[in-house]
Design goal:
- The structure is a single chain.
- Helices cover 70% and strands 0% of the residues.
- The chain has five helices and no strands.
- Helix 2 packs antiparallel against helix 3 and helix 2 runs parallel beside helix 4.
- It starts with a helix and ends in a 10-residue tail after the last helix.
């Protein structure tokens, strides 16, 4: 059916975008890329939902040693911008991100 073809095409496009973003992250380094995604959260309200969806899918939870290069202040400002957004889906995505990927009692914030 047409709906099935559209869904499959949308899934393929999502996969291509995620693949491209992964290649960019590999090229510039994961910490630098992650910090720029948080800059998007701060500076681009129109892109927040997409950035939150990307982080929810692809962000790796930093281990005790891996979070050393992450600018925690940037992460906090990015999350604060998301939680203040007018769009309830963006706010919900931010809360989900805090719950699943960035727990407040995690090593990143200590």
């Amino acid at each position: 059916s047409t709906r099935h073809v559209q869904r499959r095409s949308h899934h393929r496009a999502d996969h291509q975008v995620l693949s491209l973003l992964s290649r960019v992250a590999d090229a510039v380094g994961p910490i630098y890329f992650l910090q720029n995604v948080f800059l998007v959260l701060i500076s681009s309200p129109a892109s927040r939902l997409s950035a939150i969806n990307y982080l929810s899918r692809k962000m790796v939870i930093p281990s005790d040693d891996d979070h050393q290069g992450i600018d925690v202040g940037l992460v906090i400002r990015g999350v604060a911008a998301v939680l203040e957004d007018e769009n309830s889906l963006v706010r919900r995505g931010g809360l989900d991100l805090l719950l699943r990927k960035l727990p407040l009692d995690g090593k990143l914030f200590m």
